Amino acid sequence: KFKAQELKSLIATSSLELGIDIGSIDLVVQYLSPRQVSRLIQRVGRSGHGVGRTSKGIIISGDEDVFESTVIADLATNKKLEQVKVHDLAYDVLANQIIGMCMDEYENDSENIYTVIKRSYPYRNLKKKDFLDVLKMLESINLLWLDKKGDAFVVKRRKKSFEYYFTNLSTIPDTRQYRIISIIENEPIGSLDEAFVAEHGSPGNRFVCAGRAWKIIQVYENKIIVEPVDDIESAIPAWEGELIPVPFDVAQQVGQLRKLVEKDSPRLKDYNMDSATHKEMKNIVEKHKSTHALPDDKNFLVEGYKDFAIIHSCCGSLVNNTIGKYLAAMLTAETGVSVNIKTDPYRIMLQTTAKIDIVIKILKDADNLEPVLRASLERSTTFKWRFLHVARRIGIVTRNVQFDRINLNKIISTYAGTPAYEETMKEIFLEKMDIENAEKILKAIKDGDIKLHMQEGLSYLGELGLVHQFSEVMKPRMPEKEIYNAFKRRLLMTRVRLLCTNCAEYNLVMKVKNVDEQPECPKCGSRLIASIRRGQLNAQDIVRKKIKKKQLTKEELNEFNTIRRSSDMVIVYGRKAVEVMAGHGIGPQTAARI
């Protein structure tokens, strides 16, 4: 309909940039920063998609996002794109290609495979030793046969090769989402990635979602049952999705633009922005400068607020992530205190009891960046999660394996030092880190080319960072009375099955609020009424069999005993027992204690 111009506008996600040729678009409106120049070009390029036509786009921006949007619009107008990163020597893809070659020919010569693979650009620098390590690893997991033949090997596929190859035609990871269900309202409050659940999903653990802390009660199938808790300080910070990283050059130019706005430079006229955008920039700069020094590409502000140290560094997502993880590792090693860390393209935010001058000292004396990061990454959630994906792609574990069915720590220790382990490190350093530019920044700090300005108190730009990244710190807790009332409403609206254990003829589903104070069977007058789950459809048949003194299986006998205990509770406590047993996961035994 849109292509036929029956619809005049369409709201789309980032999938619009994938090259979909709709053909009739006149204008693309990008809401907030696209974060990268290439992303903006791809999206705006959907308009005017034809010979002789012009692509037209507008960015609608706000808050501090206006700086980044303006820089990206300027770079796009001047035809300056980000440099493309090539993933060299991907061992998981190499493993897949070796198996693919063995699918073509039952017997292969390792020298021939090596020669063919070296002709591919990403493997131009592949060393013979690394290639042989991948071959031997594939043999160890029973995907290949290797027969020694002089200095080389005869390589043959195995039975498992077929299933592995055809279930790994893509390198896109399969990830599951878990719905978070509040035990209070029995309704979903959000979702968690499998990655987060893999690391932190044990019952009793606490995490932050929707601006407050929750304790995990139970994880089953694709659901996490939680209850609210007040202890937000000890909760694991909210899980962040994989956002598009803002490049180093874009963030540096944001710093330069801040300086131009501060001086009200005539050069601002060169930027592709309207007067409202300029006014918003000026307003942000003045708000921040009223209390703190303005951070830019050559001046970093380090501010202390409560137990936060906020480093304002216009260095982009990957550089700030690299320096932030280094700082966290060094702080933990030197002081022994735990550190929560969040970064964005313009800030490194550390939540720690360590003093701010220790943070500055580590920044000025930074050394051995990569070795420190490698050592700390091995224990991180990021590494474990990435390793699971690599292990799936190489064939160490099957594609559909679930993290809760395997001992991930044991698998990682078993494959330490193998191509699977090294590939995981490479992926993290390529996609999540920028060692080269981080080292340049740290050297500039050490040499005095970048100046550090230390100030106590929360600045305007610092507050924006905390609101976006540590939103739970800024939000009030839900009052206890509100929790109680919501829980009570949920219990009273829960539907339960009432079953007479005396005659088994009364079997009715109703809401708890409609249950009599002392339920009794309208058929036989008995008060032996069991309150069970409404989905427990076989309960009536089990009770009937027992009444008729028929033989029950072991499972049926266990279920009957639970049903009978429930009716004992109801005859003693009446509707109160029904209310209590309507709680999630509460059977007669727990209800008796309550």
Descriptive report:
This protein is of the alpha+beta class and 594 residues long. Helices cover 43% and strands 17% of the residues. It has 23 helices and 18 strands. A five-stranded mixed β-sheet has the order 7-6-10-9-8. A five-stranded mixed β-sheet has the order 13-14-12-11-15, with helices on both faces. Strands 3-5-4 form a three-stranded antiparallel β-sheet. The radius of gyration is 31 Å and the shape is globular. Residues 471-477 have low confidence and may be disordered.
In brief, what are we looking at here?
This protein is an alpha+beta fold.
Set out the fold topology.
Elements: E1 28-31, H1 37-44, E2 57-60, H2 65-77, H3 91-104, E3 107-109, H4 110-118, H5 128-140, E4 144-149, E5 152-157, H6 159-166, E6 177-182, E7 188-193, H7 194-200, E8 206-209, E9 212-220, E10 223-229, H8 248-263, H9 275-289, E11 299-305, E12 308-312, H10 316-335, E13 340-344, E14 347-351, H11 356-364, H12 369-377, H13 381-394, H14 408-414, H15 419-431, H16 435-447, E15 451-456, H17 460-469, H18 471-474, H19 480-493, E16 495-500, E17 507-511, E18 529-533, H20 539-547, H21 554-573, H22 575-581, H23 588-593
Parallel strand pairs: 1-2, 6-10, 11-15
Antiparallel strand pairs: 3-5, 4-5, 6-7, 8-9, 9-10, 11-12, 12-14, 13-14, 16-17, 16-18
Beta-strand portion reads: 15-25%
Q: Give the strand tally.
A: 18
**The biggest beta sheet, please?**
5 strands, mixed
Q: For the record, give the distance between the C-alpha atoms at the N and C termini, rounded to a whole number.
A: 59 Å
Q: Whole-number average pLDDT? A: 87
In order across it, which strands form the biggest sheet?
Answer: 7-6-10-9-8
